[in-house]
Amino acid sequence: MFTHEELHVRAGRRTGLPIVVAVHSTVLGQALGGCRLWHYDDWRDGVEDALRLSAAMTAKNALAGLANGGGKTVVPLPPGVNVDADTRRALLHDVGDTIEALDGRYGTGPDVGTGPDDMVVIGERTPHVFCRPAAHGGSGSSSPGTAAGVIAALRATVARLDGDTELGGHTFAVVGLGSVGADVAGRLAAAGARLVVSDVRPDAETLAAELGARWSRPGDALTAEVDVVIPAALGGILTAELVPALRCRAVVGPANNQLAEPAVAGLLHERGILWAPDYVASAGGIVHAVASELYREPEDVVARRIERIGDTLTEIYAAGEAPDVTAEKLVAARLTPGTR
Ligand SMILES: NC(=O)c1ccc[n+]([C@@H]2O[C@H](COP(=O)([O-])OP(=O)(O)OC[C@H]3O[C@@H](n4cnc5c(N)ncnc54)[C@H](O)[C@@H]3O)[C@@H](O)[C@H]2O)c1
Asked: 217: pLDDT confidence band, cut at 50, 70 and 90?
């Protein structure tokens, strides 16, 4: 069943390259979700991704308490097509025009393949853009906010596991030392936690040494014997085959779409492994952008909003059923008029 409000697929006027914008829901307000610029074998796969990711943004924004719905832009680059600086700029203008044509029903920000500087270029064609660098009037990278939200989620998780929110006495495996993973690992190391870290980039081993963390091969980090595994790389890593091999007590991280298939959430629950739905744990970045730029809240108020991710998870864990089931009920309740 088609449950989205709008789906736009256009060839960019300047570049001829495909641009997909999916608006899943504006029930709570302007739909928000980042702009993904990535290679796909077929542009239709980009449409699939935009449909799936925009629906996840509705859930993420609803559970983060934002007055916003979910949307997503995907620019599916054909295989072998690499854009030079001029084409990239033209392409981002094409994206801006596509978003501007929606009259404010959707706003974008950075995602895989785009960053704050790209938002400046999109912003030359539409005001509906977030996370420009501070020098351009935006709130900058969303990664520190996302990392702060993951820390709030981890505190709620260790409280559920052991009854206290101290991260220092616990062990964590961080899978992916990119902008969010490295930040989370740094905060955990500063709190005195013991860490196993991994990345497919060998140069990340230097950061591991700086953090006093044990370096591990990526496959091994996922199955490390730790309290919490933190997926901070790509999605789809939690497979039915992996669940029996896990030796952690919880899986909590920022990676979007961690489940290879929805049924894996139930398998984790049956094994007694706590799983924080990724759209709850990863919301800190968008909360930071929206609260700073749209609501104009000061940093301390924004920080408290991000902390509430922990409260939401505590509520979800307390229900005692598989966390995705409870989270979906909470999303449905928030989207139903009269219950917000
Ligand atoms: N940046 C944000 O604000 C934000 C917000 C919400 C969700 N997320 C999600 O969090 C995840 C991390 O985001 P990021 O901004 O840090 O991305 P990033 O690209 O900076 O970092 C990802 C890291 O994962 C590593 N990696 C890739 N495959 C790996 C593997 N198999 N094993 C171990 N490491 C691997 C990469 O080398 C890279 O260092 C992504 O799934 C992203 O969609 C990010």
From this structure: confident
d(CA 232, CA 13): 36
**Is the per-residue pLDDT at 328 higher than 90?**
yes
Tens of pLDDT, residues 34-92: 999 999 999 999 999 999 999 999 999 999 999 999 999 999 999 999 999 999 999 99
Can you point out the beta strands (E) in the chain? 6-11, 18-25, 31-32, 35-39, 69-77, 106-107, 171-175, 194-198, 214-215, 228-231, 250-251, 274-275
DSSP reduced 3-state for 107: strand
- Atom number, ligand 1, closest to the C-alpha of residue 255: 41
> Where does residue 253 rank: exposed (0-12), middle (13-18), buried (19+ CB within 10 A)?
buried
Mutate to test the pocket of ligand 1, among 36, 234, 279, 286 (most ligand atoms within 8 A of CB): 234
Confidence of residue 338 (pLDDT cuts 50, 70, 90): low
Give yes or no: residues 189 and 71 share one domain. no
Question: Which ipTM score applies to this complex?
Answer: 0.99
Residue-number span of the structural domain to which 105 is assigned: 6-60+67-136
pLDDT band with cut points at 50, 70 and 90 for residue 283: very high
Residue 244 belongs to a domain: yes
Angle (CA) 266 169 144, round 5°:
70
In a domain, 235, yes or no: yes
Note the pTM of the prediction, 2 decimals: 0.94
Which of 53, 131, 200 for a ligand 1 pocket mutation test, highest count of atoms within 8 Å of Cβ?
A: 200
Together in a domain, 10 and 125 = yes
